[in-house]
Amino acid sequence: MVSPPAVDHMVVLTHPSARSFCRSVARRWQARARRHNQVCEVRDLYHDCFDPVLKANEQPGKPGFSPAST
């Protein structure tokens, strides 16, 4: 019998409150996925200080460009 393919999950969280319903759902989803031996990463854009504005030095080929680390 062939095993099902591995499943990876990426949850992107975008709520400023550390006690939000959204965060609770994200953490529960992560816990459930891990119980099923699946990979689940939660990325919290507020915690990571994500800035959605693309700056000139972040454009490939522009002076000062360097790829962001993940």
What are the main properties of this structure?
about 70 residues, alpha+beta, 2 strands, about 15% strand
What does this structure look like?
This protein has 70 residues and is α+β, with helices and mostly antiparallel strands. It has a domain at 8-55. The protein is 21% helix and 17% strand. The chain contains 1 helix and 2 strands. The protein has one helix at 21-35, and strands at 8-13, 39-44.
Number of helices: 1
Tell the overall outline: flat
Residues in β-strands, percent = 15-25%
Largest sheet: 2 strands, parallel
> What Rg do the Cα atoms give?
17 Å
Q: Trace the largest sheet across and list its strands.
A: 1-2
What is the CA–CA distance across the termini? Answer: 37 Å
SS class: alpha+beta
Q: How many β-strand runs?
A: 2
Set down the secondary structure blueprint.
Layout: E1 8-13, H1 21-35, E2 39-44
Parallel strand pairs: 1-2
Short summary of the structure?
This protein is an alpha+beta fold. 21% of the residues lie in helices and 17% in strands.
